[in-house]
């Protein structure tokens, strides 16, 4: 299947919508990326909140604009809390996004992610190995790293989108975003983004936020990918991974005012 | 009730005391802000330690200079460990501070915070919605964001201070610090501080540290607020939220040597 | 016993090996330093992964290149997961490193660390107070801070190395690395490294990574210490603790290309 290149203007439009609507994003994410995820959402004008107790998570996902489920540091109690949050989100009509970190070889997260795919996620965001493993087509990558390219995973992403009803974003050097019928491609970014922890996980939080925006969800999710690729490109110029992080957040902070090139 | 403006010299005095006494602050705080909280305390010359097991937390709060309880990512096991730490702190005479993050609508933390208020905290630091909810006067804000101004919450803060015996700091564009009789106001800061996660939570850790200092606790807590507002003002100049964080920590690092304007 | 000064060229050699072999480091570490630890490993070209569920941790440590056990924010469930990971690592031949944070006065971690020392760690990295406490020669320091110098702890480190079979690194103003017979000393670094949370914990992750490299393990562990001291020295120049962190990661990122002075 062919992919259409996303309009270069979309990142500025999505950043504008995020700033304008300021979605409250309930993040149930892994221990490693919480600060960066929160700061990415804040820089974009969205509002993060991390609530993780099973009882409270169910209460909170019902009033949040969107919910993120990221299984990076999954434990049994967290899986239980995430399940409660998803069920409550579904009852309340809160859209939720899944980041199936390192799904494949590890049992707890793999079983849990397969269960979650059946629970009507609005979006799924992963790297090539994760999307292929979730679609049942491979065993996953090397830890959190991918061993495949996003293009190679595109058929798996399209299959997963049709099976789950979610928008599926398989991200890498080029990102592909699909609803199973239409497919968009997003260029840009920087290899430096793979030398900083949490850029993918934070993207998943922005994807969750974008599911709360008005308009075409496929475009909004692709726009979320474009926002991050654009900021990454700006921030990487002449920098190492340490100075990249502040520059990346600074770039996100002004993105709603950027004019598309 | 009237509030007196804190002397502009107080921030330098408090920073000097923190540097000189280097309080060992036992931080039981939320997952999102741990690194930033530790780095804020270290930049000021204080010494952070995060100990979270119920048994160890009770052992450690007895030997720490101060204890921080922040309920941002509360779970049942953490509530139990925090209770043990508070009880041990009280037996040992260690002052402790409460940050009632997002208290109001969420059941576990709301019940727990109401219990903690009865356990003789030395200080309570929250935003307007949190302080009003804790004083029983509203239902809390939108996640961790406040929907009220600090001035509107001042009567609730004063009531809470009298009921609990704690110094209560309700922070926002202007901070108010009260013991229920006297009230001090602190100006400064920057709106950018609301676009970076953890500035409020880290302030609560500095408030906890300030409760271990000699002298008037109301002044010390107000001084802790002034230290953070001053550093935020310096760091925000011409910066986005990403470059704000390193500049903020750099500003705190030299604050004990600053001469008040 | 005498210590030989490590060759100044070793840091560049170790950085080169890390870049070339890109070890996959399974980090079971404390809540406060996870992001920084991951970013340090990524900057050096290694690959971090945090997997903490007891079942998954056992699966993952068998396929990782190295495992890190850091007890900074230990709880009973985490101790159980760490035990499973170590047992699996030992069966699979995965080398693992121990960071006995604040061992001494706190019961859970002290009992657990004494148990771990019997389980054939490849390396142990701690400050003077921690190493002396683990060797049974003192009660530990003040929280995570040391109250002793590394030189004073050298006999304890040598004793611990002989008893455990591990390479022991006792770090401070000067680092000493010993296998119980040979001892190497590493100079450099900056006092600013003690005003930023996680430099010691991240070093332990690099030590774990270095245990997966080919060649003499004593030299590799000493090289890991030298890499961090060298980057710290570069990053500290004219900076405060906030701007130190990005500069430190930037320095690590180019270290494999540095020519030893």
UniProtKB/TrEMBL annotation, chains A, B, C:
Its EC number is 2.7.1.50. Transmembrane segments: none annotated. Substrate binds at residues 50, 198. It holds the Pfam family HK. Keywords: ATP-binding, Kinase, Magnesium, Metal-binding, Nucleotide-binding, Thiamine biosynthesis, Transferase. It catalyses: 5-(2-hydroxyethyl)-4-methylthiazole + ATP = 4-methyl-5-(2-phosphooxyethyl)-thiazole + ADP + H(+). Belongs to the Thz kinase family. Catalyzes the phosphorylation of the hydroxyl group of 4-methyl-5-beta-hydroxyethylthiazole (THZ). This is Hydroxyethylthiazole kinase. The gene is thiM.
């Amino acid at each position: 299947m062919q992919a259409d290149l996303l309009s270069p203007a979309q990142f500025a439009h999505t950043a504008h919508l995020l700033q304008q609507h300021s979605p409250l994003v309930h993040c149930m994410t892994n221990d490693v990326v919480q600060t960066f995820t929160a700061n990415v959402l804040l820089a974009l004008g969205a509002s993060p909140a991390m609530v993780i107790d099973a009882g409270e998570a169910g209460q909170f996902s019902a009033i949040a604009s969107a919910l993120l489920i990221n299984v990076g540091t999954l434990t049994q109690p967290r899986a239980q809390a995430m399940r409660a949050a998803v069920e409550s989100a579904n009852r309340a009509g809160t859209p939720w996004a899944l980041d199936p970190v390192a799904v494949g070889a590890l049992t707890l997260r793999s079983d849990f992610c397969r269960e979650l795919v059946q629970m009507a996620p609005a979006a799924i965001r992963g790297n090539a190995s994760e999307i292929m493993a979730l679609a049942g087509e491979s065993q996953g990558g090397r830890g959190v790293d991918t061993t495949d390219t996003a293009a190679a995973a595109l058929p798996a992403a399209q299959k997963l989108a049709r099976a789950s009803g979610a928008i599926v974003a398989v991200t890498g050097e080029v990102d592909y975003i699909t609803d199973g019928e239409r497919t968009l491609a997003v260029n840009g970014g920087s290899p430096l983004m793979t030398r900083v922890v949490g850029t993918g996980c934070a993207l998943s939080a922005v994807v969750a936020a974008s599911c709360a925006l008005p308009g075409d969800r496929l475009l909004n999710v692709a726009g979320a990918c474009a926002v991050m690729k654009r900021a990454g490109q700006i921030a990487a110029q002449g920098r190492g991974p340490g100075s990249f992080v502040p520059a990346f957040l600074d770039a996100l902070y002004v993105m709603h005012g950027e004019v598309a090139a």
